[in-house]
Amino acid sequence: MTDAPGRTADAPRGRPRNAAVDGAVVDTVLRLLAEGVGFADLSMVAIAREAGVTRATLYRRWPTKEALMAHVLDTVEDPLPEPAGTSLREDLLVVVEATRKRSLAKHTSAVMRNMLTTLHSNSELWQYFRDKSITPRREAFARILRRGIDAGEIRPELGADLDLLIDMLVGPLYYRASINAPLEEDLTEHIVDTFLRGASPR
């Protein structure tokens, strides 16, 4: 796992951190991102003002904007649920539906859009986002697909490019989220069943 950018190795000694302050700062960052403020335009001064804390308080916790953003990622990122392993279809429904619901969350979508804009401008933060969010989720999908191949539910030759199979499952969700298109409740079943019709042994 990549270390959080700009984060100090040891927490400062002294009084315990006030969780309410941390929560107010995180909520402020998420609100600003959801309102369309880009990561490049966020300033520690504005965040402190909007959160109702002093700049000294903010900088004691997060010495850089990158360190603060890494903390926000840590706060909002939830792991995918672990499927029961009963069948390929049921397992895929679990993780694709979790991805759909995640894409519906306004703060998560805002964070994701802003992280994508850092790809060329802040490689360290982008790498942290990949390690924290993207890679674990893709690995979870890959485990399910490998089980499906081993069980004969997916044609074995398709295992040569698991990344493409994962893209087929999550791509429609991320694309629709990026253009603010509806993510209907039945979309998960439609994606999974369409995928299986193409990937199942003939």
Summarize it.
The protein is mainly α. 64% of the residues lie in helices and 0% in strands.
Which terms summarize this structure?
202 residues, mainly alpha, Arc Repressor Mutant, subunit A, 2 domains, 64% helix
- The arrangement of helices and strands along the chain is HHHHHHHHH
What is the CATH superfamily of the largest domain? Tetracycline Repressor, domain 2
CATH top level class name of the largest domain: Mainly Alpha
Radius of gyration: 20 Å
Low-confidence stretches: 8-14
CATH topology of the largest domain: Tetracycline Repressor, domain 2
Protein name: TetR/AcrR family transcriptional regulator
InterPro entries: DNA-bd_HTH_TetR-type_CS, Homeodomain-like_sf, HTH-type_TetR-like_transc_reg, HTH_TetR, Tet_transcr_reg_TetR-rel_C_sf, TetR_C
Keywords: DNA-binding, Transcription, Transcription regulation
Pfam family, one: TetR_N
